[in-house]
Structure formats: structure tokens, C-alpha cells
Amino acid sequence: MNNIKINFSIKDLENLTGIKAHTIRIWEKRYNLLTPNRSDTNIRNYSLESFKKLLNVSYLNNNGLKISRIAELKEEEIATKVKELALKGKAEDYAINAFKIAMINFDQVLFYNTYSSLLATNSFSNIFYNTFLPLLNDIGLLWQTSTITPAQEHFISVLIKQKILLNIEKLQSLNPQPNTKTFVLFLPQHEVHDIGLLFINYQLRSKGYHTIFLGESVPMESLKELFNFFNDICFVSYFTVYPEEENITAYLKDFSNLLLNNNSTKLLLLGQKLNNYSNNELPKNITIHKSIENLVKDL
Fold first, then answer.
1. How many domains does the chain have?
2. Same domain flag for 285 and 185
3. Cα(124)–Cα(109) distance, rounded to whole angstroms?
4. Distance between CA 227 and CA 233 in Å, rounded?
5. Is 273 within 8 Å of 240 (Cβ atoms)?
6. For the stretch 213-249, what's the b/e string if a residue is b when 16 or more beta carbons lie within 10 angstroms of its beta carbon?
7. 11-23, pLDDT tens digit by residue?
8. Global confidence as pTM
9. Average pLDDT of the segment spanning 202-211
């Protein structure tokens, strides 16, 4: 394991654990649950061990243990209690906390061990929906608030991508359903966040559909070439950062004019950039889906 010492502000702890700074201060004063270090100007900062302890305390509290009871437990008793509850109850919450610690500390072994524990009792799809997706949502917020560094975000993202790719590879030998349409998965130019699109590719392949995965930053014009090889195409894309909000309407109009002239050709969309759009205001044959699960169910 990497020996990386990291100090956290109380705001960092709030962002990482979801526990309000006010509550953390109360737990400190009333129950001595954490012992922060103090700067010369009396500003609190917390060690990696304090962060781990707070995650465990939060987990126990969310599972019904009163703070006064948790405060009576020794450090090792808290960790043991967390493991006991994780075995009996929702392993996903425990796993999300473990993955956050792995990310903060660049700990690949912890990531793989936690993933293996989940895989013993869950399908890969369940792990993605119930653990990886909530984790990725949290990571997005942590990155936006500068609680984690780009290196930490890339570290955990690459490990998750590896798991998706591994599961896609297991499906490569399956023949697609006869007479099925071809799903072409791509990200628009400058868009590089491909985890969601990779998982959609996995879901489509697992259901027997034929897919072509083009990945990140694909120029719209180059998609025309697919029609030289396939007759019945459904495009799938994910708008996380690009196109810019003010350019989305023009992008979709251009896409429709260039690629959706055939009534059977469609474009299915997901992503936070589309939160303010409804299907009523879109060109014909373009549909926005609120979640990966909904998109897969609607096929």
C-alpha cells in the first residue's frame, strides 16, 4: 500500500463523507470521535486515518447505531463492527467507502479486494448500477469542489474502465442476434468521459445486439462512413462535458440533417449536459434517456 500522508480540511471531510461540517464539530466536541490537528492560525486539518474513521462512523450511524454508542467503541471495534454489518446488510455502501479510500491513497490492492468481494455475491451489472454509478456521481462532485486531484479521479476511473472492458471481452465471442440493428456508440468531439458509454456497450452486447464502439471525440462527419457498411443503424452518445450547453441545439440539428435522413436511423442520448432538455424540443428520431437503465429497458 502507498504510504501517502494527506491532510483534509473539514470541508473536504464533508464532501467525502456527506456529513455536514457542523455535525463533525459536534461529534468532535461531545464524543471526542476525531482529534484534528491545528494550524498556526487554529484551522482544523485531519489525517487520512481520521477520514477512514469518519467513513466508518458514518456507515455505522446510517445503519442504526447511535453516535453515543459508537463513541464508546475502540478504533478496532469500530472497524470490526463495520465489517460485520457489511456482511449482513448493504455491502454497496461499505464498498463505496472502501473505493473512496482506495482512490485517495492510490491503493490498487484495496480496489481489487473490494471488487472481488462484491463479485462473489453480485453480477457485474449490479455492481455497476449499485456501486460504481453512485461512486462516480460522488467523484464528480469531489472533483468539482477540488476535494480530490485529477490524478486521483483518473486512478479510480481507469480501474473501473478496466473492469468494464474485461467484461466486454468475455462477450466478444457471442454472435449478435440475427437481423439485429447495429448500435454505433461514440462521443462528440472533445468529449472524453467514456465510462457510461462503455457500460452501455457491455449491456447491449450482453443482450445479443451488434455494436460498434468508436469511443471518444468522434467528428460528426466521419460517422457517415458507417452507412457504407450497415443499413440499420442506431447511434448512441453521452454528453458529459461537451458539446457546450449553448451549442447543443445546433449540434443536434446538424446531426439530424447529416445522419438521420432515413426514418429507421435514430440517435439515443444520455448525460448531464442534457438535463435541461426534453424530448419534445428535439429533432425527429432523437431521444434523451435519463439513465442507462432506462435506455436499455426501452430497447
1. 3
2. yes
3. 19
4. 8
5. yes
6. bbebebeeeebeebeeeeeebbbbbbbbebbeeeebe
7. 888 888 888 889 9
8. 0.78
9. 91
